[in-house]
Every structure is written in C-alpha cells, then in structure tokens.
Amino acid sequence: MGFATECIHAGQEPDPATGAIITPIFQTSTYVQEGLGRHKGYEYARTQNPTRRALEKNLAALEGGSDAYCYASGMAATNAVLTLVKAGQRVVVSDNVYGGTHRLFTKVLAHYGVEFAFLEASDAGAFDAAAGRFDLLWIETPTNPLMKVCDIAALSAVARKRNALLVVDNTFMSPALQRPLALGADIVVHSTTKFLNGHSDSVGGVAVVKDPAHAQWLQFYQNAAGAILSPFDSWLVLRGTKTLALRMRQHEENGKRVAEYLRGQAKIRKVYWPGFTDHPGYVVQRRQASGFGSMISFDLGSREAAARLLETVRLCSLGESLGGIETLISHPATMTHAGYTQAERDALGISDGLVRISVGCEDAEDILADLQRALDAV
Ligand SMILES: Cc1ncc(COP(=O)(O)O)c(C=O)c1O
After folding, report:
1. Which of 52, 138, 234, 367 has the fewest CB atoms inside 10 Å of its own CB, making it the most exposed?
2. In the prediction, which pLDDT does 245 show?
3. Ligand 1 pocket, 191 CB below 6 A?
4. Whose CA is nearest to atom 16 of ligand 1?
C-alpha cells in the first residue's frame, strides 16, 4: 500500500462489535475476565488498550518498523528508549538537539552512571574520528534549531562498527518525508505532539523499533513505568495521522515559499533551511528524505529585533511547539533551548536573535503578509 493509504488505514479495522469505521476510544481502566487466566487479551489498561494499540500499529507501519510503543509525551518516549542503556555505557548525541532532550540526558540520566557527549554529527567521517567508544548514538536531523543535516545511513555504519544503536528523533520530518529505519537506524522516536498529531491538541510520544528484543523491552517498560499515552490522546493522534500525507504536502509547499521569502529580506542575517541548494546538508537531505520540511530558523541579529518581530506577528502564533496545522513561531534561546547555558548556546550558534518558525497549512500569502508586517516593525 502507498504511504497515504497506510496513514488512513494501517492498524485500524472496523470495530468488530458495531462496524464503526473509526477505532473507538476505549476509555476503561480494566477489562472483565471470564475466569482465572481467561480473558480476551486485555487485563488492565496501563498494560493494554485497544485505542493505543491501533495507533502503535499505525505508527509502526508508517515508519516501516516491526512495532511501536506510545508514551505520555515525546520526552517519556525518549526516556523509555534510554532505558536500553546501562550504567557505565556512553551515549553520543548530535550537538544541537531539542533542549528538553539535552536536559533529560545531562540533568537526569547522567545521575545514573551513563556518560553523555554532544558532538557535531553533520560530517559522518569527522564524527567517526572524534566520537570514540559509544553504545548509543542519538541524532536529530535536521537538527533543532540550526537545521544541520546528519547522514543517517553513514552514521548507522559508524554506529554498527561499534556495535552501538542508532536512534533518530524524526519529529521534524515525520515519516511522510523521512524514514530512518530504512536507512539503517535501529529506533525512531517522535514527539507525536508535533506533525503526527498535527492539530496542537495532544501531547504524546512514540518509539518505533525493528528488533523484537527492543519491542519486548519497550513494552515491558511501558507497563513497568506506566507513562502511557491515554486512550483519548491515542485517538487524537490516530485521527491526525489520517491526514499526515496531505498535511505534509502543504507544509512542504508553504515551507519553501516562506524560506525563499525570508532569504530575500535585508533585515535577516541568515536563514537556516536544508532546502537551499547552498545549504551544506542539501545533497544528503535530498538523498535521504523526500522533502525539506517546514521548519526554518532565521537570525535577526539581536534579541530586541527578534522580540519586536515575535510581538508583532498575529497569524503566526508565538508559542512553544511545532508541527501544528497553525503556523507557530518561537525564540529558541528563551523557549525550546532555555535548558542550555548561555555559553552552550553561544558555542552552538543559537544566538539571541534566532527565531524558529514552524510553517503551517494556512494560505502562504497570509503567512507572508504577516511576516512582512512584523519585519516592517523591526
Ligand atoms: C525534536 C523534538 N523531540 C522531542 C520533543 C519532546 O516532545 P514532547 O514535548 O512531546 O515531550 C520535542 C518537543 O518540542 C521536539 O521538538
């Protein structure tokens, strides 16, 4: 089946009891059993829920995995995957990731005897030479917020040489544009809060795996730690993925229009978007993804200029998050990447003048008019 068909149908059958075409929200905490040890495969709703399971099967199909497990947030999914690592092991991370991922790794999981190192990973050869020993490599591509492109296939070879796992946070691209498991990654993580749900009305996360041993552990951990995705949120994300292929086409078209517009503006010092032919990652992005996405960052030169723009936009909503059908705009230094110290942000190039936009599905002319009005005020 094609991708759009999988989006709409994978994991979902008409409800056997009623024929309802849409998987119901199984809002129950437990299931009545017929006798001791005799039940329909459902015992307790932390452990199994049919709505969540339908979503997990849907997302496994979209990412080309063997199975998937949904958690209460993207961070809960990230945390679940990191329980595959044991004390004494070393995790290497691409050097500008979502601030919450950096915070979880450095301020929480480092307490448990796991070593974390953050390294530039957009040149796989240089990364291989610099990385040393590691047991798990965690990357985002394009990276957040500087849109560096990491070569998934090359980095999977680098990880395999060390017998290490490669995990890709595919939140920025979604499986509509990029399928890391087919390129050699072992696990894909998403904040389903973003493009997968797509409607800015749910928080959730998923880990998609190919190895049955990883599936077994992540399911065990889901039940053991209990940070599961609720039935209602599972249903919302299932509804969201039905239109993923459609929405991503519009995001892609609008992203290109906005990136090209921003690049032509004298008040903007630099625009970060992997679809520019002179972007250092353009060739890799073209090879490994079917689009460039609608995440764009741009540098206005100062915090004051960024604040002026962000306080003047109206259609583009100032807020944390991304991937909604609505255009969202944010200030990485004080919002998504506030967990980094000023020195860390300076070293990475996340300047105070940097603005990140997640271009939505509105009419492109309206988004451009809003940005123009705000730029005029800077
Ligand atoms: C790339 C990326 N990964 C993970 C997360 C965390 O997801 P959540 O907010 O659903 O916990 C985010 C949140 O912004 C993100 O942007």
Report:
1. 367
2. 98
3. yes
4. 98
